[in-house]
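Repro:
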Amino acid sequence: MIIQTAPSNLRTICLVLSAIAFVALPKQRAFAETKSDAERLEKLERAVELLQKRNAELEQEVHSLKKEKSSGPATASAPAPHPLKEEQRSRFTPDSKSDVEKTEVKEEKKPLFVLTGASEIKLALGGFLQTQFEGGDVFAFEGRFGSGAIDDRFRLRRARINLTGDFADQFDFKVEGEFEQSDVSLTVRDATGRTLASNSTRTEFGATDIFINWHDFPEFQIKVGQYKAPFGLEQLSADTKLFLTERTEVTSALTPERQVGVQVWGKPFATAMPDQKDLLTYWAGIFNGNGRNNSINDNDEFMYAGRIEIQPWKGSLAGQEAWVRFGGNALSSRDANGTVLSPAGTLRVNSDGSLSTFTAPSEAEREGYGVDGSFHWGPFDLIAEYLSEDYKARPASGVRPAFADFGADGGYVQASYFIVPKKLQAVARYETFNPGQVRNDDIRSVFAGVNYYIHGDDVKLMANYIHTWSDFRESNPSLGASDFDEVILRLQVVF
């Protein structure tokens, strides 16, 4: 504390010091009695002078500290201001008579805390958005022409939000929902014709992946919930990792897409041979078989699906990472009347050669298989896949089948190359699909695309041109055009 002595208090100080001196001085006999009043006053005056000098020094020190505080912004060596004090801002507003200091105090913003509800050791919120323009013969490559034609449009192709996490007990999970519904209108009914599920309005929020996976042993993991059944290389590829905007028609028509069930899967060499962990991967699952977001099985039967992948070689080729991979799938299902047999695409051939969703009009069964191969070398990728599926009607309780047996198949070859490493990519694909229900009902398409990776797959621009031929309409000119063209432009953002 700094004490400043004003001149008006000088007399009081003198009197106090006189009293102290009077009490403290020892009594001297003859020598003390000879002291004069003048000598005592002289000592008091000297004491006062010392106090005044000290007071002046203290005033000078205070003045110096104030000047140092008001000078310029703090230097780099000065300590940082307290974070709470930064919320206070002082400004001077000039007035006609004087400068009036006004202090604006901002309320401190409270931090946001997110806590895990159980024993999660990792929790991540994310999602992605795919917006696109579709012009020309929209989705003609899926047989949407003639009676099933779609107009030009801007479209939210996918808009998803997800939550993923890991538990301390070697479990991981995913919960994901879709704001934008598919163009495929699905209505699931039981054997009596009662509607079990429908997305015909395409206005509701729908779940995509909802599962829990036990991964304590990488060689043997167990996955329970709703997710993609292990059938089809292109179908199992992530939506955000595709080199072209849309999957092939054979993939959409013949793969079961997301189902509710349980599967075991793993990499048998993950622990024994870490450098060759991808040498072999397997999946084997049991599912309801009647699509996603449906809690009721269509009958007492289940769908069985499995896949195996082999990577016989991985190394370096001309200084670039390279590998070769082969895969195979199998599927079997016995389905009730009203089950949608093409949940992700179009399969049934209409009278004008267009395709639509195929719903079993009576008891049915399906058997399918597929093979695929892929080669990766630095900026280049080559992928080929073939899928085949047989659909058979089966009698139930003496009721005659309502459709004839048929087999559908198809495949594709796709090549891509980075013109500018990790930035500009060119892609081309040829695909063919045979619905197998009438003569010359094949649909063939050629895709050509360019991808610009602004920030990897997280921010990506895609442009595709598609040309499609319909053999059925070419054989029946009265139906109209048999060649179709479409352009798709997409912006993808992953967050």
